């Protein structure tokens, strides 16, 4: 089978979507090296990284790269042209992973990864340009994709709710897994945590943006301190995102600016250390396609308090305390209880490790390869003209 696979978001600054594509293609190459893999450093014009694939090559005897474009304009011209499929060598499957979707694929089976549509739930969670770009891609997939891969049952249900015409039997859940292969890794202490003892801080991982809900988390943390909670700092590990320009002022108004550690973007080694050494991993996101920081934290034994929203309960199972992400008092009380009960905290950590074992990239890759085989065996769903 000739598999064309979008790796456009798997560069050095990758986030959740990029990690999903990166780990899946690596696992497929490992478990099924007999196939031919054509990897696309650019895919469409919504997301563009001119350094792809220089910083993250994928070794394999049957691996080649598709066209590499140096500008967004040349990428757009190629991917929207009328001869794109022939120029790619007419692979059996073309798999989109960055929200953008072609519509002119006449013979190859088009597979589309659907992450989430949080931007349709609350417009204030993202920018207008990002919202329009993401929705355009998802909309095009509903019209042109032969199969859709959803990263959770919650995402699958949301897709079918928005696009009820799409055949449900061509929409399959394939779960993400942790990016970290070695669960025994110790990691490396971030410099920002010098002087903070192991097990002596609360952790939140994720880009600082409205959907990740750090504003309410900070308010709950201030309430926790006011109730006499153990004064462990709250570490926010993630880059600054959009629409949070006043966040620092929010912390100052709460009177907790000195108790907040903002690390910025952290390396994988630093993230492992944070997961392994936090008192608990707090994840109050308002909406997720899956919630990878929950699963990754569990892999390293992080006791977890997480949102009960959207897909996160699928990742967390029964191994976390799940709360309404808007219930500030509930989060403060959970922190207060957990902070004063080391036995409960340790039991959550042990349960987390067992929950994480349920997710495995080789199983996910095998499921995706099975989907490809089914897609090739069946007629195309629709040809856009």
Automatic annotation (TrEMBL):
Domain named Glycosyltransferase subfamily 4-like N-terminal: residues: 67-176
EC number: 2.4.1.250
InterPro entries (UniProt xref): Glyco_trans_1, Glyco_trans_4-like_N
Glycosyl transferase family domain span: 202-352
Domain of life: Bacteria
Record-linked CDD domains: GT4_MtfB-like
Pfam families linked to this entry: Glyco_transf_4, Glycos_transf_1
Nucleotidyltransferase among keywords: no
SUPFAM superfamilies: UDP-Glycosyltransferase/glycogen phosphorylase (SSF53756)
Enzyme kind, highest EC tier: transferase
Keyword Transferase: yes
GO MF terms held by the record: D-inositol-3-phosphate glycosyltransferase activity
GO biological process: lipopolysaccharide biosynthetic process
Keywords for this protein: Glycosyltransferase, Transferase
Protein name as catalogued: D-inositol 3-phosphate glycosyltransferase
Organism name: Paraburkholderia saeva
Classification of source organism: Bacteria, Pseudomonadati, Pseudomonadota, Betaproteobacteria, Burkholderiales
Gene: mshA_2
